[in-house]
Predict the structure.
Amino acid sequence: MRKPLLAGNWKMNTVLQESVQLAEALNKLVGDVNDRDILVCPPFTAINSVAEALRNSVIMVGGQDLFWEEKGAFTGQVSPKMLKSVGASYVIIGHSERRQFFAETDETVNKKLCAALANNLHPIICVGEMLAERENNTTLKVIEKQIKGGLKGLAVGDAQRITVAYEPVWAIGTGKTATPEQAQEVHAFIRKLLVEMFDKPTAEIIRILYGGSVTPDNIKVLMAQADIDGGLVGGASLKADSFAKLVKY
Ligand code: PEP
């Protein structure tokens, strides 16, 4: 049985004080929840303070990206060790906004994934098709390429430490959610790919989150699907009460 994971991606929102206030408010509302995992991913600038604010909390903290090198002349980049040193235990990799605006590819996703795992961070690997790809009926082909490229060369033991997030790009921040059936079709396809690439027990362990305009109103029907193991949530994670409702679906 996979434990659900509800993850909030705050993106480039919340300055330091707002981040801490949001974390504290959320902690008051969900601090007693233990039958599901809860994660918040603030901007880099707030991870340390949010982790401090959540020091004795069930809520975990993660980064929204990382760079694969350990250290050196890479202006503006953040290494896995830096993330860990400020209290992150998870990291989002390959979010569609990074693919769209910051030239992220399956190859860079793969390098980041390996670096995260080597440093004992739990990576959340994002995949998802664009609207035109869904309309062309190439969704599953796109997902297969992203999964096979992103997870290339991964050992079974390492695969068991990853999380996958299916986020149709047309559903992110648009208010358009995939129907539970559309999401389940892709989640089941991803699980099948994971069986082929690794083995069945491994594929059964890996959590596959859905992301794309998840709200307190639609989380329950999404979570009722056999292969949906949680949510990666943008907009609805920026208000403590809506994220708390969603966590307690
Ligand atoms: C996301 O940030 O990954 C996301 C799915 O955003 P939203 O929930 O706002 O669509």
